[in-house]
């Protein structure tokens, strides 16, 4: 679940795996692949790697993550919290707690923090504070997560600690960095 072997587009998924476990993409929201990919992996029993590349992913400047000032970016809040809730409801969270918490830390809190800063002209501070509050409430010992400790470089851990302890400081730092960057152009 946590190791970067590729997104859901990098795999072939058995139909019976999907149907038997009732794993569907949430409708009407973006980042549905984050939900589905994590949920379906909770049911996978065997993985086979194929050496031949059969798919090429092209960057699309009009994709969800590249467009600016889009309210749908906040769908990440619903997706990640629904995922945590649904894993719990299905009795899967206990078995995969460390993995899901790591994804919640990294993909939801930290990645969303940087995504919201970089894709909005006016920083949505209230949404940023909301995701940090979610992290503190849902994964209070986030820095102790075994996957986080293993997979996150020390420099990133320091930045992440500042983000969680004082998001306003990191938002101000980001703004200053952007002003300096624009003056150099």
Keywords:
mainly alpha, about 180 residues, about 60% helix
Would you write up a description of this structure?
This protein is mainly alpha-helical and 185 residues long. It is 58% helix and 0% strand. It is built from 8 helices and no strands. It has helices at residues 15-20, 32-41, 75-89, 93-119, 125-138, 146-151, 154-165, 167-184. The longest helix has 27 residues, at 93-119. The radius of gyration is 18 Å and the shape is globular. The model has no long low-confidence stretch (mean pLDDT 90).
Q: What is the tally of helical segments? A: 8
SSE class = mainly alpha
Biggest beta-sheet profile: none
Helix content: 55-70%
Average pLDDT score: 90
Write the layout of secondary structure elements.
Blueprint: H1 15-20, H2 32-41, H3 75-89, H4 93-119, H5 125-138, H6 146-151, H7 154-165, H8 167-184
Summarize the structure.
This protein is mainly α and 185 residues long. The protein has helices at residues 15-20, 32-41, 75-89, 93-119, 125-138, 146-151, 154-165, 167-184.
């Amino acid at each position: 679940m946590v190791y970067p072997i590729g997104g859901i587009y990098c795999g072939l998924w058995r139909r019976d795996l999907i149907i038997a476990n009732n794993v569907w993409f949430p409708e009407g929201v973006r980042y549905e692949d984050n939900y589905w990919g994590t949920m379906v992996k909770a049911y996978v029993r065997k993985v086979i790697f194929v050496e031949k590349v059969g798919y090429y992913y092209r960057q699309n400047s009009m994709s969800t993550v590249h467009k600016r000032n889009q309210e749908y970016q906040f769908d990440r809040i619903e997706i990640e919290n629904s995922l945590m809730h649904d894993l719990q409801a299905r009795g899967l969270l206990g078995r995969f707690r460390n993995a899901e918490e790591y994804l919640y830390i990294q993909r939801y809190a930290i990645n969303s923090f940087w995504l919201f800063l970089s894709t909005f002209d006016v920083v949505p501070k209230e949404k940023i504070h909301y995701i940090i509050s979610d992290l503190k409430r849902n994964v209070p010992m986030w820095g102790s997560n075994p996957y986080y400790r293993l997979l996150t470089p020390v420099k990133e851990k320091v930045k992440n600690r500042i983000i969680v302890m004082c998001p306003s400081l990191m938002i101000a730092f980001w703004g200053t960095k952007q002003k300096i960057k624009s003056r150099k152009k």
